[in-house]
Each structure stands twice: as structure tokens, then as C-alpha cells.
Write a structure and sequence with these properties.
With 378 residues, the chain is α/β, with parallel strands linked by helices. The protein has two domains: 190 residues, 3-Layer(aba) Sandwich (Rossmann fold), CATH 3.40.50; 172 residues, 3-Layer(aba) Sandwich (Rossmann fold), CATH 3.40.50. It contains 14 helices and 14 strands. A six-stranded parallel beta sheet has the order 3-2-1-6-7-8, with helices on both faces. The longest helix is centred in the middle third of the chain and has 21 residues. It starts with a strand and ends with a helix.
């Protein structure tokens, strides 16, 4: 098959959606398909480390806003493909996938990754205008749809727009279980961050408000043990605000900001510095690729009781589930793992076993291939 993968932001820029698309493209290419990724040009035509398995075409646009941008040239470029895989949201790109389906009969498969709310008044206004006008058409125009799971899709803002006979389960996100695996903590890296001899709570992800890092910093501050530290892996968005919050709470040395790390570089080593992961998302978290990466590394995860993240964790078995937005409950769950290292390690072993069994990228690639063939056979 000649397959187009369409996504707003793609590696080397960090983000779960981009890495899902990367692995989808790579595994489909390794299964013998001709794959091209279309994504926004964020300043250069090619990035160091672009893979040889598939092509990447970065599209220029004079109209870029946030993680979106208008790329009308995409509609004509899609004419030559057998099938298009649209990763939504992509404001400025999804409309032209829909247009290509109307003009050229290009059938598309839609992965609905997450709801979008906007972190300022202008973005919220734009989303409020866009979604009633276009989102239903884009969703209904897809031949098949997938996402982080039916429960998440039902609970999403678009829940009333899906035709459920078109929804298929593909697995959504996965892990390279060889790259992310249990290993001893890297002592030079521990020393670099001043974390030697400490229990390390790990937070990983882009520092967007809905990730709940502010709640986690509050919880760490309430636990007055200097031997407990928080390692923040990620950057962008509200990083300066979180640094200020940590300073104001007197957490210098106990909250360490490691910045964004590449999955092909030092990210797996940073996962292994943690004793357990905490992702206390307040809303909009549809899946949480970092949860699986931590679990593959042998770390239990503490996650919010949102439909996406909570489906990855079995409460009390390979992780813990915390009430959304409840700092007190978050503190208690951190204490459970901090005070019982043996239980923490045992949960980490079970977490690793689950990921190896259920969340390999290769399985997701196989499921996508089946879905694409199903569409083309109609």
C-alpha cells in the first residue's frame, strides 16, 4: 500500500502524538509498505536523525499558530496515495485531508488522539468556532476511526460525533521494550542532578498545564522529607512558572528540571533514575505514552482517574490511580510507594510484564495494516 501519515508535529520535536506517528510509519514501512509522513515545516526541510525507512515531507505555511498551520497544498499531494492516516488534532491540515477525500476519493483512517481546549482566550475562541463547523465533517468523513480506547472516545468532547460501528481498537500507543527496560540507575547521571541516595519521583512530558505538575510540586512540598526528590523530564509551555513555584515552596535541590530528552538519546536513562512515575493530569490526557515507557522500565505509575491513563494501570497491582485534582490523595499514593520500596519494586516487575505482553509497537503496526486493508477492500 501507498500510505500517507498526516500529523501536525513530528520528531525530533517532543510529544506523544508525534512519537505514535513515528512508530506507526516505521512499522508499516517495515511491513513492506510505501510510507510518507506529511507534517509542518518548523524551520527546516530535514532533521538530523530522520529515519531511512520512510519519507518525511515537511510542509511550509505562512499561517502557523501554536501546533497548527494551514497547508492547502496537502490536498493535492494526497491524490497519489491509496490511503491516508490522519492524526487528529491537526488544525490547518485535517481540513485538507477531508477535502482530498471529497475531491479525489482518498479514503482516510482517523486516529483521534485527544481533545483540545486551548491555554489562552484566543485559542479557546478559535477552537470554539472551529469544532462546530468542521470537526463533525472530519470525523464522519473517515472510513474507520481509532483512539486511546472506546471509554476515552465516549468521554471526549467529540463523543457524540463518532459512528461506533466505524470505531476499531488498534492499541493506540506502544513501547520499544528493548530501549525501555529495567536497569541499574546511572550513577554519574544521579550525581549530575544531585539525586544520589534519594527516592526519586519521576514526572515526564511536555509541561502543559493539564499535566498537573503544579499538583505534584504541591504534594512534594507537603512531604517534608529531604530524601524525597522530584525529577521533571520535559520542557516548554509553563516551565518558568513551575520553576518559580518550586522556588517559592523552598524545594531547591528537591525538584530538578532535566529538560526535554530524546527517546533515541538519554530519555530511557532518565526513566531509570526514577523509583516510580507520577502523572497527575487534570483533564485532556487521552493516553499517556510516558506511562507505558515508565512501566516498560520496571517502574509503577501513579496516574489520574481519567479514562485514558487509568486504563493502562491496574490499581494496586502495577500502579496506583489517584482522584483527579486531589492533592491529598496524590500525597497519600506517593507515600504508599515511598514507604514500601519492596512493594514498589514488585509493582514495577508486574508493570514491565504487562507492557511486554500487550503494548509492543509491532502489534499496533499489524493492527493498523489490517484496518487499512479492511478500508481498501470496501
Amino acid at each position: 500500500m501507498k500510505i500517507a501519515e498526516v500529523i501536525a508535529v513530528f520528531p525530533p520535536f517532543h510529544g506523544g502524538m508525534g512519537y505514535v506517528c513515528f512508530h506507526n510509519a516505521r512499522d508499516l514501512a517495515r511491513r513492506g509498505h510505501d510510507v510518507t509522513v506529511f507534517t509542518l515545516d518548523l524551520g527546516h526541510r530535514r532533521c538530523e536523525g530522520d529515519p531511512a525507512d520512510f519519507r518525511i515531507e515537511r510542509l511550509r505555511t505562512p499561517l502557523r499558530y501554536g501546533d497548527g498551520g494551514a497547508v492547502p497544498q496537502l490536498a493535492s499531494k494526497l491524490r497519489k496515495f491509496d490511503i491516508v492516516h490522519l492524526h487528529y488534532p491537526f488544525f490547518g491540515g485535517a481540513e485538507y485531508v477531508y477535502l482530498a477525500s471529497r475531491l479525489w476519493g482518498r479514503r482516510y483512517f482517523l486516529t483521534y488522539h485527544m481533545d483540545v481546549y486551548g491555554n489562552d482566550a484566543l485559542k479557546r475562541l478559535a477552537i470554539g468556532v472551529y469544532e462546530p463547523l468542521l470537526l463533525k465533517r472530519i470525523i464522519r468523513g473517515a472510513s474507520l476511526v481509532t483512539g486511546p480506547g472506546r471509554e476515552y472516545l465516549k468521554s471526549s468532547k467529540a463523543g457524540g460525533l463518532f459512528e461506533w460501528d466505524k470505531v476499531v481498537e488498534t492499541g493506540h500507543g506502544g513501547v520499544d521494550v528493548n530501549r525501555y527496560s529495567p536497569r541499574e540507575k546511572d550513577l554519574p547521571l544521579l550525581r549530575k542532578y544531585g539525586l544520589e541516595g534519594k527516592t526519586v519521583v519521576l514526572f515526564a512530558g511536555n509541561l502543559q498545564p493539564f499535566k498537573g505538575l503544579h499538583l505534584l510540586i504541591d504534594a512534594i512540598a507537603r512531604i517534608g522529607d529531604p530524601a524525597l526528590a522530584l525529577l521533571v523530564v520535559g520542557g516548554g509551555y509553563g516551565e518558568e512558572g513551575y520553576r518559580k513555584q518550586a522556588r517559592e515552596k523552598g524545594l531547591e535541590g528537591r525538584v530538578v528540571f532535566a529538560g526535554p530528552q530524546s527517546p533515541e538519546g538519554a530519555l530511557p536513562d532518565h526513566f531509570n533514575l526514577g523509583d516510580f512515575l507520577v502523572l497527575p493530569s487534570t483533564h485532556s490526557e487521552s493516553f499517556g505514552l510516558v506511562i507505558l515507557e515508565a512501566m516498560a522500565s520496571g517502574k509503577p505509575a501513579v496516574v489520574s482517574a481519567l479514562p485514558g491513563p487509568s486504563r493502562l494501570v491496574e490499581d494496586g497491582v502495577d500502579g496506583l490511580i489517584v482522584r483527579v485534582g486531589d492533592v491529598g490523595d496524590l500525597l497519600n499514593k506517593i507515600e504508599v510507594l515511598r514507604r514500601d520500596p519492596t512493594r514498589c519494586r514488585e509493582m514495577g516487575v508486574r508493570a514491565r510484564e504487562k507492557v511486554v505482553r500487550k503494548y509492543r509497537w509491532e502489534t499496533i503496526g499489524e493492527n493498523l495494516e489490517k484496518a487499512f486493508r479492511q478500508i481498501l477492500a470496501r
